[in-house]
Amino acid sequence: MRERVPRHASNEELGTKGAIWASRKGSPFLLGYALLTVFLFGLSLEAAAQTAGTFMPTGNMTTRRFLHCAALLADGRVLIAGGEMIVGTGVNIGLGLSFKTLAGAELYDPSTGTFTPTGEMVTPRSRCTLTLLPDGKVLAAGGSDGQRALASAELYDPSTGTFTATGSMLTAGGGVPTLLNDGRVLIVGADNELYDPATGAFTVTGAFAGTYIAPSVTPILLGDGTVLIVGCDCQFTTPPFRSAPVAELYDPATGTFSLIGGASLPNSWWENINTLTLLRNGNVLIVGNAENDGYPADAELYEPSTRKFSGIGKTTAPHEFSTATLLPDGKVLIAGGQLPGGNGSRGTDLYDPATGTFSAAGNMTTGRHSHTAILLPDGRVLIAGGYSVWPARTSSAELYVPPVLIPAQVVTGLQFDQASVAAGASYSVNISGSGLTAETFFGSGANSYP
Fold first, then answer.
1. In which residue ranges of the chain is pLDDT below 70?
2. Which of 22, 249, 264, 353 could, after both became Cys, cross-link 308 (CB 3.0–4.6 A)?
3. Cα dihedral sign, 164-255-20-374
4. Nearest to 298 by CA among 264, 337, 341, 250
5. Nearest Cα to 244, choosing from 263, 268, 264?
6. Is the CB of residue 143 less than 8 Å from the CB of residue 173?
7. What does R_g of the chain's alpha carbons equal in angstroms?
8. 429 beta partners
9. How far is CA 171 from the centre of its chain?
10. What is the DSSP string of 2-13?
11. Is residue 333 within 8 Å of residue 53, measured between CB atoms?
């Protein structure tokens, strides 16, 4: 049965079957990919047995690591790869410690709460990033081998559990990746480039609109398909010996950057911008700390409709080198951070967009910073690794269980009425499954289709 679902359908109107009408740039394939990646499995036995609203230990990683990378796979498992570990004393970066860059990778299974090794990366790398691509593979690009920046990139195939080399970036170290709506990956940093999964090649895209000496930026995909880039020109070698804010927008349709200038510049310098989170209302939550100050973090909102930044106060805990995770109820969990001296904080915050306020979310089981946090399909959050008590790194992992676990959304059928669609045209999708709601398809966000 095929039914036309209104653009603003209620939960009752959508039910478990529906046909989506959308005016959207790109192909139905990408819409199907985005939908399928969020409809994964039911609640695990481990989740059902836990007390809601708490942090609970889960299995340890097979390797102690920090500055590693993580990604949720399409089958609901979590890939953890790379990073660094301390192997003894030495003179590395003047700390009297010796670090080893890791090639090892492992998988976390939410149904069992355990980590198991998987294939090693082609190149050991830390400070890297993992990007889930539309075909289910994962792009690992850039980072560092502990001595120098890397230009190499590789792909992880979950079906074989192996990494294989792909094209190299044009600039070693590259920058931070963002998956665009057309399936390409934008890398922003010292230079800006695009990765095309179809060709396995990196190509140059537009330059920043501003002139910077040492840009350190964080990007995030907005609901309209453009990319917000926020950070600082972090150079301290020439007067006035302070960083200047960077705030630009990237338009994938034209391959160009534009300044967000004037009064709409960020209120803070963002030398250590930690997290950007796209909220369901389309705004972006920005949280960051000055280095090693140990104070509650500053927070701002960016509103795309006005291109304005506004300060919204501070968190309850410090959050330098922390993580931020958008929860199924629309709130944001901000976890951990670096304390003065290098220890990890157990403190966490919840940001509620409905009230615009932060509140303490309880303490993690282990203090940590430079860790990873991944939202699992059942609504829990996996928090793993990082520094605990300086300079000790940890293999421990834990789960944050929200006060209410959102039932898993499962798609059993997904069929488009045409193979491709022009920008601005309409198409229908037959979707069947369980636990599906209008919010699934019509909410705001990078993977929503208003």
1. 1-52, 86-97, 174, 235-243, 262-273, 290-293, 407-414, 432-450
2. 264
3. positive
4. 337
5. 268
6. yes
7. 21
8. 416
9. 22
10. --EEPTT--HHH
11. no
- Token digits for 381? 């959050």
Helix, coil or strand: residue 72: strand
The reported pLDDT for the residue numbered 97 is: 60
The distance in angstroms from the start CA to the end CA of the chain is 23
From CA 83, how far away is CA 99, in angstroms rounded? 10
CA 68 to chain centroid, in Å, comes to 13
Question: Residue 178, Cα to own-chain centre: how many angstroms?
Answer: 9
Q: What are phi and psi of 130, to 5 degrees?
A: -115, 135
Alpha-carbon span 437 to 444, nearest angstrom: 14
Residue 334: helix, strand or coil by DSSP? Answer: strand
CA 217 – CA 276 distance, rounded (Å):
11
Q: What local confidence, expressed as pLDDT, does residue 270 receive?
A: 61
Task: Give me the pLDDT at residue 116, please.
Answer: 97
Concatenating the DSSP letter of every residue in 360-391 gives: E----SS-BBS-EEEE-TTS-EEEE--BSSTT
CA 209 to chain centre: 25
pLDDT of residue 427: 76
Contact 293, 275 (CB under 8 A): no
How confident is the model at residue 71, as a pLDDT? Answer: 94
Q: What predicted TM-score, i.e. pTM, was given to this entire model?
A: 0.79
If we measure between CA atoms, which residue out of 327, 344, 300, 297 comes closest to residue 400? 327
* Cα 321–Cα 80–Cα 291 angle in degrees, nearest 5: 10
> How far is Cα 208 from Cα 229, in angstroms, rounded to an integer?
10
* Alpha-carbon gap, residue 208 to 199, rounded angstroms: 25
What letter does residue 76 receive in the DSSP assignment?
A: S
DSSP string, 165-206: EEPPPSSTT-EEEEE-TTS-EEEEESS-EEEETTTTEEEE-P
Read off the tokens for 353.
């967009």
Q: Which domains does the chain have, with CATH numbers?
A: 4-39+410-442 (no CATH), 45-401 (2.130.10.80)
Provide the residue type at 110 as one letter.
Answer: P
Contact between 360 and 316 (Cβ < 8 Å): yes
Q: Which helix (H) or strand (E) holds 14?
A: helix 11-14
DSSP string computed for 116-171: EEEPPPSS--BS-EEEE-TTS-EEEE--B-SSSB---EEEEETTTTEEEEEPPPSS
The answer to whether 188 touches 237, Cβ cutoff 8 Å, is no
Amino acid 31: pLDDT: 44
